[in-house]
Amino acid sequence: MSKLNLNKTWNYAAATESTNHILLKEKYDLFINGEFVKSNSKKYFDTINPATDEVIAKISEANKKDIDLAVKSAKIAFRRWSKLKAKERGKYIFRIARMIQERAKEFAVIESMDGGKPIRESRDVDIPLAANHFFYYAGWADKLEYAFPNKTPKPLGVAGQIIPWNFPLLMAAWKIAPAIACGNTVVLKPAETTSLTALKLAEIIQESGLPKGVVNIVTGAGNTGAEIVNHPDIDKIAFTGSTNVGKLIQKSISGTKKKSTLELGGKGANIIFEDAAIDQAVEGIVNAIFFNQGHVCCAGSRLFVQESVANVVIEKLKDRMSSLIVGNPLDKNTDIGAINSKEQLATINKYIKIGQEEGGEIYQSKCSISKKGNWCPPTLFLNVSQSHTIVQEEIFGPVLAIQTFRTIDEVIEKANNTPFGLSAGVWTEKGSKIFKLTQELNAGVVWANTYNKFDPTSPFGGFKESGFGREGGLHGLKAYLKFE
Amino acid sequence: MSFPDLLKIPKIDKLGVQEIVNRFCKRSIKTSAKKHGLHLALSMIDLTTLEGKDTTDKVRRLCYKASHLHNSLQGLPNVAAVCVYPTLVRVAKKELEGTKINIASVATAFPSGQSTLDVKLSDTKFAVNEGADEVDMVISRGKFLAGEYNFVYDEIAAVKEACGKAHLKVILETGELDTLDNVRKASDIAIYAGADFIKTSTGKISPAATMPVTFVMLNAIKDYYKKTGIKIGMKPAGGISTAKIALQYLVMLNETLGYDWMNKDLFRFGASSLANDVLMQLQKQESGYYQSLDYFSKD
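Predict the joint structure of the above. Result:
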């Protein structure tokens, strides 16, 4: 096959998003009962720009006493918030949504600085979707009786919510919006590497006039999270993160009355049939695994290609990878940004090493990478099987394991042959084949001829060890209500 | 040359194409990259006049414009070619003597293509004998939509032969082909039948060139190159009237076929008003402010 000259190209000059319009404090305290308060631990930790290794701000570490205060204020606020006219609750949430929209650019820049994701994604995906979630659930606030006719929906009480670092603001929106729309109050903890946009959201919440204590945002690492999980006055735990932590949470709340929804890891199967629109499927593969540097729980990290088109697909995929731009997350032309943290980069590199040691054939696109910051080029593994570690375990990085298949039954069996069950993708022009697969794949989401599409109206959640409970849509309300 | 295997032609997903095209449009082209892109765009223009009311004087003026784009800007490239009807090729030839600007001529009963093969071949030969370096032919869309792919293929092959040394651009008139799957099929037929370039439109049918259509055609070119090592050119025509749109096409070209295609030998814009907008943008790059459109000559 002749090679395309995609390495030497028309180089786009830097088009960096300006950072001079954003307002950041040097130190961020805890947001409890409507005020920013110093933590009892008196400790701060750094939040770092993963693209430059620079410290952006200092974040307060909440301890047991702080969590106690936060839960107490949420519990007191619940009395009035849950009895407030539903229409009034909705108004506050609409206001928060509009304020996010007004400050979308600022949020996008901070999200990219703090988390390393390309500005193209934070600007076009994270922030607009976060605002949409607030809009969507604001609309439901006074219609709960219609959503669940002949049942009497009642809020649960205080929700403890722990969110991951891959979509910081968006995950906060997924958690807070349905919870408060249903009349609950919230204690939310963002991930320790990406607390900033949640704290900016706290500023918006403060400005919006939302009654004090309805939303409390506390920062810190795993220990802080454990304090929330174990607090006796928490009525519900909503967690998004790793399967290991999810299992720990389930252990610690067993025997209590706490309800829970867990959205955990995944190892999504992306399946390309020979009758698919091949060029668009290749684009779909790129979207499935390289979106947000592969830090996506529903990433299509296992690719299955039908043998008859495997060579063509892999060749086209390699070409496409060489035109992806890896670099400064704030550059508007960047396709793949920085890996979120040193720890995560070490994990990804560990898996890349294991993949090679186990005999996988590695391919990485060439890209010039800055010495500072955390980077990983887009990576493929060929010649791997279901028995390889990198096919079995979640890597949470831009690493794709490629296998081929011959028949439809074979690929269904392999796709389901994983402890996870969060997502899958099917690429074929044949409608009946899509329906067969959606019936038989054990995954919470199955995308057909597209991948990684999200919408507030659509429920999202896992099968098996990818968790339980749904977020988004009507189903997302159910997780924050009890029926009498 | 052989007939393409129609069973192996990839299917096209319209939404998927639209999605990647949107992504190309979001590239931010600034400063040095913009200047380079604008120069490139200028050098790829087929400056076109294809009207029933064209006269020798009109063609003369167009040719003068082609070789004197904007005298107050230094280091400008020339456009790639001037595109006229066969009867005006001789006029253009004379006017452009001594320049490196090619003369392209539409032929084969342009724009409808509703005529016999004999007429189409003599139309082609006439244009070439008058001095055309490039021939832009139209395919028989009616036959294509009726499923007579062999007819379309044979016709292109015959015109190619009649062209002799002149380069053949094959106009698919994608605005009449209805689906992107058809665009892809027609692209493959044209390429396998001997086209040097494939071109979207005559400019007489709306929609003319669009980015999704061009993207599908670029992929046909890519697959053919991968298979044979032969580079086919691409010419979107009609509707590309601003520098901004032209840069978006170049981004798409850059990221689909790469640098080898980033020149006038393998990529052209068929346009009449694009040049002035590109010039205006270049002037702005130089001076930092926009000049009035009245500073740019309209010929």
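Chain B has one domain: 6-288.
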